[in-house]
Request: fold
Amino acid sequence: MAASIVALAETGSNTRGDVSKGGICLFRIQRVNKTFRDTIQGSTKLKQLIYLAPRDNAKLKDEADLEEGRLALHKPLTAFLWGINFRTKKELLDLDAHKDAEEGVEALVTVLRDSICSGRSTTPYKKIFGKCPKKWRRAQASWRKIKVCNARVPVPVRVVVQGEETWPDHALPMGDIVWDLDEEATLEHVFDLLSEFLKAVEDLRHGKDLHERSRAKKLLQFDERTSSDRHQLESQLAIELKALEDALDREKSTRDDEVARLDAELRDMELKAFGIKASSSREALESQLTIERSYLGREVDEQGFDQGDEITETIRMRLQAVETRRAQRTASESK
Reply:
């Protein structure tokens, strides 16, 4: 049976190493038993189908069926990455091949979509390799020995890993990660590099989460402390404001009392000034009257009354009458 299957496979009838294309999967049937494995390992043509044996460079470049990648001499590499992407069912990878314009090296650009970083239910590593069979991940699995270049004359290749523009939104502003693979590089080496990269992304994401939680905790503590400090400050300001208002009230009361006292003193001074002025005026008037009275008396004594002044005449007549009555009374008493 093994010989029949091998004969069928060697004719190229719907037989591929890539299980995604259907037909006979040589990777699987070589695990049936030792006979199958030895038979496949003994056939160069079968080994070429599963990339365990090199092929002519010219034939690889002339192949029309390059739908799994555009690097004709590195079919194992593109098949490996596309196989992983196919198993995820979410197209987490986006591959694009080109030749470096300056160095002339074939390059395979692998863009990791931001969905690798989103969510917390699983890790980026499990998103990429979680769907692969357990036996596929065994240390002695045959795929690990497959070289990334299946050309008879091997050439190096450059793998560039990029993140989408939205990666910075996940706090992972990754630049280009470049892996220069030489002619002897194997798929195991690519697997190790990609695994380490995905684990590093997970560590960075975990670190970002820790940082965000720590930052949120510190912000909460800061807000609480600030709120407490603000409350204390407001209380202290309220106390100081009340003390200032009380001091202003006391100062206003003292100032009002002082104004009232000054007003009273001013009124007293005005009254005193008015009293002094009135007293002075009265004394001056009395002095003037005294002077005039004395002058009048002297004038009467020395010059007699003014005959032309009726008032003076009346006074003189009354004084004469008084003198007459006095003389009469004295004469009467003498008798």
